[in-house]
Design a protein that fits this description.
Blueprint lengths: L1 H9 L1 H5 L5 H5 L18 H29 L2 H14 L1 H10 L3 H16 L8 H4 L9 H7 L7 E4 L3 E4 L2 H10 L9 H18 L11 H17 L9
Antiparallel strand pairs: 1-2
Helix pairs in contact: 1-10, 1-11, 4-11, 6-7, 9-10
GO cellular component, one term: membrane
Pfam families: MlaA
Organism: Thiopseudomonas denitrificans
Length: about 240
Protein backbone atom coordinates (compact mmCIF):
# COMPACT_ATOMS: atom_id res chain seq x y z
CA UNK A 1 0.00 0.00 0.00
CA UNK A 2 2.78 2.41 0.91
CA UNK A 3 4.53 1.77 -2.40
CA UNK A 4 1.34 2.63 -4.26
CA UNK A 5 1.04 5.88 -2.31
CA UNK A 6 4.63 6.65 -3.23
CA UNK A 7 3.81 6.00 -6.85
CA UNK A 8 0.97 8.51 -6.60
CA UNK A 9 3.21 11.15 -5.07
CA UNK A 10 5.86 10.66 -7.73
CA UNK A 11 3.19 10.67 -10.42
CA UNK A 12 2.23 14.25 -9.57
CA UNK A 13 4.95 15.26 -12.00
CA UNK A 14 2.99 13.67 -14.83
CA UNK A 15 -0.08 15.69 -14.00
CA UNK A 16 1.83 18.93 -14.07
CA UNK A 17 4.56 18.37 -16.62
CA UNK A 18 4.23 18.50 -20.38
CA UNK A 19 5.37 15.41 -22.26
CA UNK A 20 6.52 17.42 -25.27
CA UNK A 21 7.38 15.87 -28.62
CA UNK A 22 11.03 16.51 -29.58
CA UNK A 23 9.94 17.22 -33.15
CA UNK A 24 7.64 20.03 -32.04
CA UNK A 25 10.21 21.63 -29.78
CA UNK A 26 12.64 21.72 -32.68
CA UNK A 27 10.16 23.38 -35.04
CA UNK A 28 9.96 27.10 -34.33
CA UNK A 29 7.35 27.55 -37.09
CA UNK A 30 4.88 25.14 -35.50
CA UNK A 31 1.43 26.56 -34.81
CA UNK A 32 -1.23 25.24 -32.45
CA UNK A 33 -3.72 24.87 -35.33
CA UNK A 34 -1.58 22.01 -36.63
CA UNK A 35 -3.04 19.83 -33.89
CA UNK A 36 -6.20 19.39 -35.99
CA UNK A 37 -4.24 16.99 -38.18
CA UNK A 38 -3.61 14.63 -35.25
CA UNK A 39 -6.31 12.05 -34.51
CA UNK A 40 -6.74 11.55 -30.77
CA UNK A 41 -8.77 8.61 -29.46
CA UNK A 42 -10.60 10.33 -26.62
CA UNK A 43 -14.08 8.81 -26.16
CA UNK A 44 -14.14 9.81 -22.47
CA UNK A 45 -13.36 13.47 -23.04
CA UNK A 46 -16.07 14.73 -20.69
CA UNK A 47 -14.59 12.81 -17.74
CA UNK A 48 -11.04 13.49 -18.83
CA UNK A 49 -11.63 17.25 -18.90
CA UNK A 50 -12.94 17.21 -15.33
CA UNK A 51 -9.91 15.31 -14.09
CA UNK A 52 -7.64 17.60 -16.09
CA UNK A 53 -9.15 20.66 -14.38
CA UNK A 54 -8.56 19.05 -10.99
CA UNK A 55 -4.93 18.24 -11.83
CA UNK A 56 -4.34 21.66 -13.35
CA UNK A 57 -5.78 23.42 -10.30
CA UNK A 58 -3.59 21.34 -8.01
CA UNK A 59 -0.57 22.22 -10.11
CA UNK A 60 -1.41 25.93 -10.30
CA UNK A 61 -1.85 26.45 -6.57
CA UNK A 62 0.54 23.86 -5.14
CA UNK A 63 3.21 22.27 -7.29
CA UNK A 64 4.01 25.11 -9.68
CA UNK A 65 4.64 27.74 -6.96
CA UNK A 66 6.98 25.31 -5.19
CA UNK A 67 8.82 24.62 -8.44
CA UNK A 68 9.19 28.36 -9.10
CA UNK A 69 10.51 28.93 -5.60
CA UNK A 70 12.98 26.08 -6.02
CA UNK A 71 14.16 27.56 -9.31
CA UNK A 72 14.56 31.01 -7.79
CA UNK A 73 16.67 30.02 -4.79
CA UNK A 74 18.68 27.14 -6.30
CA UNK A 75 21.62 27.82 -8.67
CA UNK A 76 21.36 26.24 -12.11
CA UNK A 77 24.37 23.89 -11.64
CA UNK A 78 22.79 22.53 -8.46
CA UNK A 79 19.45 21.97 -10.19
CA UNK A 80 21.26 20.13 -12.98
CA UNK A 81 23.03 17.93 -10.45
CA UNK A 82 19.71 17.11 -8.78
CA UNK A 83 18.24 16.07 -12.14
CA UNK A 84 21.31 13.94 -12.81
CA UNK A 85 20.93 12.23 -9.44
CA UNK A 86 17.30 11.29 -10.01
CA UNK A 87 18.06 10.30 -13.59
CA UNK A 88 20.63 7.87 -12.24
CA UNK A 89 18.04 6.38 -9.88
CA UNK A 90 15.81 5.80 -12.91
CA UNK A 91 18.34 3.70 -14.80
CA UNK A 92 16.89 0.55 -13.24
CA UNK A 93 13.55 1.12 -14.97
CA UNK A 94 15.32 1.70 -18.28
CA UNK A 95 17.39 -1.46 -17.85
CA UNK A 96 14.42 -3.71 -16.99
CA UNK A 97 12.34 -2.50 -19.92
CA UNK A 98 15.18 -2.62 -22.43
CA UNK A 99 15.75 -6.25 -21.44
CA UNK A 100 12.03 -6.99 -21.82
CA UNK A 101 12.10 -5.36 -25.26
CA UNK A 102 15.19 -7.39 -26.26
CA UNK A 103 17.22 -4.21 -26.70
CA UNK A 104 20.34 -5.75 -25.27
CA UNK A 105 22.72 -3.06 -26.49
CA UNK A 106 20.62 -0.36 -24.83
CA UNK A 107 20.43 -2.50 -21.68
CA UNK A 108 24.22 -2.60 -21.66
CA UNK A 109 24.31 1.18 -21.99
CA UNK A 110 21.90 1.49 -19.04
CA UNK A 111 24.13 -0.72 -16.93
CA UNK A 112 27.31 1.12 -17.88
CA UNK A 113 25.68 4.48 -17.25
CA UNK A 114 24.60 3.47 -13.76
CA UNK A 115 28.01 2.07 -12.86
CA UNK A 116 29.99 5.03 -14.18
CA UNK A 117 27.68 7.72 -12.84
CA UNK A 118 27.30 6.07 -9.43
CA UNK A 119 31.07 5.74 -8.99
CA UNK A 120 32.90 8.41 -10.99
CA UNK A 121 29.82 10.67 -11.00
CA UNK A 122 29.46 10.58 -7.19
CA UNK A 123 26.08 8.82 -6.90
CA UNK A 124 24.93 10.30 -10.21
CA UNK A 125 25.38 13.95 -9.30
CA UNK A 126 27.63 14.32 -12.35
CA UNK A 127 26.60 12.73 -15.65
CA UNK A 128 30.03 11.46 -16.70
CA UNK A 129 28.48 8.68 -18.81
CA UNK A 130 26.95 11.12 -21.31
CA UNK A 131 30.35 12.75 -21.77
CA UNK A 132 31.68 9.27 -22.57
CA UNK A 133 29.10 8.90 -25.34
CA UNK A 134 26.64 6.79 -23.34
CA UNK A 135 23.34 8.60 -23.84
CA UNK A 136 20.48 8.00 -21.44
CA UNK A 137 17.51 5.91 -22.58
CA UNK A 138 13.94 6.58 -21.49
CA UNK A 139 11.91 3.38 -21.30
CA UNK A 140 8.88 2.20 -19.33
CA UNK A 141 6.56 -0.80 -19.24
CA UNK A 142 3.93 0.92 -21.38
CA UNK A 143 6.52 1.22 -24.13
CA UNK A 144 7.41 -2.44 -23.62
CA UNK A 145 3.78 -3.45 -24.12
CA UNK A 146 3.61 -1.28 -27.23
CA UNK A 147 6.81 -2.86 -28.54
CA UNK A 148 5.14 -6.29 -28.48
CA UNK A 149 1.99 -5.12 -30.23
CA UNK A 150 -0.37 -4.11 -27.43
CA UNK A 151 -2.56 -1.26 -28.66
CA UNK A 152 -2.76 1.95 -26.68
CA UNK A 153 -6.53 1.96 -26.28
CA UNK A 154 -8.50 5.12 -25.41
CA UNK A 155 -6.85 8.15 -23.87
CA UNK A 156 -7.57 8.61 -20.16
CA UNK A 157 -6.67 11.35 -17.70
CA UNK A 158 -5.83 9.94 -14.27
CA UNK A 159 -6.27 11.92 -11.02
CA UNK A 160 -2.80 13.03 -9.84
CA UNK A 161 -1.08 10.68 -12.31
CA UNK A 162 -1.99 12.73 -15.37
CA UNK A 163 -2.34 11.65 -19.03
CA UNK A 164 -2.33 7.98 -19.93
CA UNK A 165 -4.10 5.30 -21.97
CA UNK A 166 -5.72 1.98 -21.13
CA UNK A 167 -2.43 0.29 -21.99
CA UNK A 168 -0.13 2.66 -20.13
CA UNK A 169 -2.17 3.15 -16.93
CA UNK A 170 -1.76 -0.42 -15.58
CA UNK A 171 1.89 -0.31 -16.66
CA UNK A 172 2.53 2.28 -13.94
CA UNK A 173 2.43 -0.49 -11.33
CA UNK A 174 5.38 -2.58 -12.61
CA UNK A 175 7.22 0.64 -13.36
CA UNK A 176 6.84 1.64 -9.72
CA UNK A 177 8.53 -1.58 -8.61
CA UNK A 178 11.44 -1.03 -10.98
CA UNK A 179 12.36 2.17 -9.14
CA UNK A 180 14.16 2.55 -5.83
CA UNK A 181 11.24 4.01 -3.85
CA UNK A 182 9.34 0.83 -2.86
CA UNK A 183 12.53 -0.63 -1.41
CA UNK A 184 13.32 2.25 0.94
CA UNK A 185 11.98 1.03 4.28
CA UNK A 186 11.83 4.32 6.14
CA UNK A 187 8.98 6.68 5.30
CA UNK A 188 10.79 10.00 5.68
CA UNK A 189 13.61 9.41 3.17
CA UNK A 190 11.26 7.63 0.76
CA UNK A 191 8.69 10.41 0.63
CA UNK A 192 11.38 13.07 0.77
CA UNK A 193 13.15 11.66 -2.29
CA UNK A 194 9.85 11.24 -4.17
CA UNK A 195 8.80 14.84 -3.43
CA UNK A 196 12.20 16.22 -4.46
CA UNK A 197 12.02 14.24 -7.70
CA UNK A 198 8.58 15.68 -8.48
CA UNK A 199 9.67 19.27 -7.82
CA UNK A 200 12.83 18.83 -9.88
CA UNK A 201 10.87 17.48 -12.86
CA UNK A 202 8.30 20.26 -12.59
CA UNK A 203 10.97 22.97 -12.42
CA UNK A 204 12.72 21.64 -15.53
CA UNK A 205 9.55 22.18 -17.61
CA UNK A 206 8.52 25.64 -16.44
CA UNK A 207 9.86 27.29 -19.60
CA UNK A 208 7.96 24.84 -21.85
CA UNK A 209 4.61 26.34 -20.76
CA UNK A 210 5.17 29.24 -23.16
CA UNK A 211 4.31 26.87 -26.01
CA UNK A 212 0.77 26.26 -24.76
CA UNK A 213 -1.98 28.03 -26.70
CA UNK A 214 -5.64 27.58 -27.50
CA UNK A 215 -7.56 24.86 -25.68
CA UNK A 216 -5.06 23.75 -23.04
CA UNK A 217 -6.67 20.33 -22.60
CA UNK A 218 -6.58 19.55 -26.33
CA UNK A 219 -3.07 20.93 -26.69
CA UNK A 220 -1.65 18.79 -23.89
CA UNK A 221 -3.62 15.69 -24.83
CA UNK A 222 -2.34 15.72 -28.38
CA UNK A 223 1.19 16.65 -27.33
CA UNK A 224 1.22 13.70 -24.95
CA UNK A 225 -0.21 11.26 -27.50
CA UNK A 226 2.21 12.31 -30.21
CA UNK A 227 5.16 12.08 -27.85
CA UNK A 228 3.95 8.69 -26.63
CA UNK A 229 3.81 7.31 -30.17
CA UNK A 230 7.27 8.75 -30.83
CA UNK A 231 8.70 6.95 -27.80
CA UNK A 232 6.94 3.61 -28.34
CA UNK A 233 8.17 3.51 -31.94
CA UNK A 234 11.66 4.72 -30.99
CA UNK A 235 11.27 7.77 -33.23
CA UNK A 236 10.18 5.78 -36.29
CA UNK A 237 6.99 7.73 -36.98
CA UNK A 238 5.66 9.41 -40.09
CA UNK A 239 5.54 13.20 -39.97
CA UNK A 240 2.00 14.13 -41.06
CA UNK A 241 2.71 17.86 -41.22
Amino acid sequence: MRSLITTGVAGLSLAACLAWSPTLLADENWQSDDWKYISAEDPWENWNRKVFRFNDTLDTYALKPVAKGYQKITPKPVRRSVRNFFGNLGEGKNLVNNLLQAKFHDAGVDTARFLFNTTFGVLGIFDVASKMGLQRNDEDFGQTLGKWGVGSGPYVMLPLLGPSTLRDAPALVPDAYSTVYPYIRQDRPRYGLAAADVVSKRESLLSAEELVSGDKYVFMRNAWLQNREFRVRDGNVVDDF
